[in-house]
Specification:
Blueprint: E1 17-21, H1 27-36, E2 40-45, H2 49-58, H3 67-73, E3 76-79, H4 86-95, E4 104-107, H5 118-122, E5 126-132, H6 141-145, E6 150-154, H7 160-169, E7 173-176, H8 182-209, H9 215-233, H10 241-244, H11 247-260, H12 265-281, H13 287-302
Parallel strand pairs: 1-2, 1-3, 3-4, 4-5, 6-7
Antiparallel strand pairs: 5-6
Length: 311
């Protein structure tokens, strides 16, 4: 018996034509996800070689044109440019009369809500802020990772259902963020995700210096368990010498880092102090042990290398 025919999404009537202004890592992936939901990408803009490659990989047969031509062809426009470039882009598109009344104007910046789209709103566009809380690689794997990804949404009340529908169609989970809370929301994500990359990269460098041949293999299970525990239990998941109040061990760490990787000392001390504060507040670190620990951290900041470090 022949297997039942599975319809190709491309055969379904397209509900919206989709354009991408800024073919970085995010825009083509979102457009590809919308295509799977039955929408039709029709144009993208991008000038760098990397942008051209990403568009060809994720949006084959979609022409690369100017931003104004993207808006001319699309019902839904994804503005996927760096945060600092977004306000001037919106103003420029409005000044050149590229924005059409009734056009869905969607930006993916975590920093901004819909206020940054006010010039387009005055021109008749429908403003949405849809920020996927995920890091992107610029490859097809991003489309798969959108399944279950939270999106920080800010939109006018009358567009709430439209915003939620688009996120759900891309496989995401809507999370509403107030306009005034967008900067704090974005700072929280950057603190967790961006700094995590730096911490892991520095840890891998130090392990290599210590003679570990496969630091990624060593860190994978440890960091995976730590992340899972932190997401499940919050501060109760704190472990290690700082949370235990092992001042001597922390002093030895500072001394070794100052000797072998002085550029990491400031970050280690800052994170150790933050960890000590949280451990104290949640009763994990005993006050009588905290005094010695905080003394080590203060000496380490001053460059004395408590516990045997050198200046």
């Amino acid at each position: 018996m022949n297997a039942p025919h599975q319809p190709d999404p491309r055969d379904r009537p397209a509900r919206l034509t989709v354009g991408v202004v800024g073919a970085g890592r995010v825009g083509p992936a979102l457009a590809a996800a919308l295509q799977l939901a039955g929408h039709r990408p029709v144009a993208a803009s991008g000038v760098s070689e990397a942008s051209v490659r990403r568009a060809a990989l994720l949006l084959p047969d979609v022409p690369l044109v100017t931003p104004a031509q993207v808006l001319e062809r699309a019902d839904l426009v994804l503005l996927t440019v760096p945060d600092d470039a977004l306000p001037s882009l919106v103003e420029g598109l409005v000044e050149t009369e590229a924005v059409r009344p009734g056009q869905l104007m969607v930006h993916t910046s975590g920093r901004y809500g819909t206020k940054v789209l006010e010039p387009a709103l005055r021109a008749g566009a429908l403003p949405l802020a849809l920020h996927p809380a995920m890091t992107f690689t610029g490859t097809p794997v991003d489309v798969q990772r959108l399944a279950g990804c939270s999106f920080g949404i800010t939109a006018p009340e009358e567009l709430r259902l439209a915003a939620e529908a688009l996120v759900i169609e891309m496989g995401g989970e809507p999370e509403w963020i107030a306009e005034e809370s967008r900067p704090l929301y974005h700072a929280a994500l950057a603190l967790g995700a961006n700094h995590l990359v730096t911490l892991v990269a520095e840890s891998m460098d130090l392990l290599r210096d210590a003679g570990v041949e496969a630091p990624d293999r060593m860190l994978g299970p440890l960091l995976g368990a730590a992340l899972d525990n932190a997401l499940r239990s919050g501060d109760a998941a704190l472990t290690g010498p700082v949370a235990r109040g092992d001042a001597g061990t922390v002093a030895a760490h500072v001394a070794e880092l100052r000797k072998h990787a002085p550029q990491t000392v400031a970050g280690y001390l800052a994170m150790a102090r933050a960890t000590a504060d949280r451990a104290l507040a949640h009763g994990l670190l005993k006050p009588e042990l905290a005094e010695d620990l905080l003394g080590v951290l203060a000496n380490g900041e001053g460059g004395s290398g408590a516990g045997g470090g050198t200046r």
